[in-house]
Each structure stands twice: as structure tokens, then as C-alpha cells.
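Worked problem 6 (solution included).
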Amino acid sequence: MSVTLPGSTTSSILGQLTLTTFINDAGLQANGDNLFVATPASGQPQDNTPGLNNAGTLLQGSLEQSNVEAVTEISNLISAQRAYEMNSKVITAADQMLQTTAQLMR
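Solution. The predicted structure is:
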């Protein structure tokens, strides 16, 4: 990582960003808000230089996009709600038919 200070034409190196990997990613304990804590099952953290030792890479100036498509999820939610309403009406109709049948038997 480098920085060019105001009034200077050359950049100064501040340091190197590292990426931490674990032998067993599934052994990490989820803490919420995309935070994880190392556990004995995950193994010891290993700091790696990006691009080496299967640590992944870093891209400057890039933004991570959401892995959720809001329009698709809202459409799925509406479909699920309509299916629930339809099933609820079927149960209500079946209940009414059974009540009518029971009254006819008396």
C-alpha cells in the first residue's frame, strides 16, 4: 500500500495488505454481521500475501456487489404469500364442506 502526500510527487510505501486464511473455513464460528472467530476446529490463522498460497487476490477500486437480487426475492416472496393465501382458502372451504356434511348427518 502506498500514499502520495500533498506537495510530493513521489509515493511512499506504507505496508502490505495481507489476507488471513484457515485450514478449515467451516470450523470458524459466525458472530453475525459477516464476522467470524477462530476456533480450535478452524485451525490457526495464516496471514498470506494476496495472490499467493490460495489466499485470493485484491482488486483496487472495486466494490463488492450484493449476492441477493432484491427484485427476484420480492417476486418470490409475493409468490409464496399468494400460495399461502390459496392454501388457506382451500382449508377454509374444506372445513365448511365438512361442517355442512356433519349438519346433514344429524
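Discussion: The chain has one helix and six strands.
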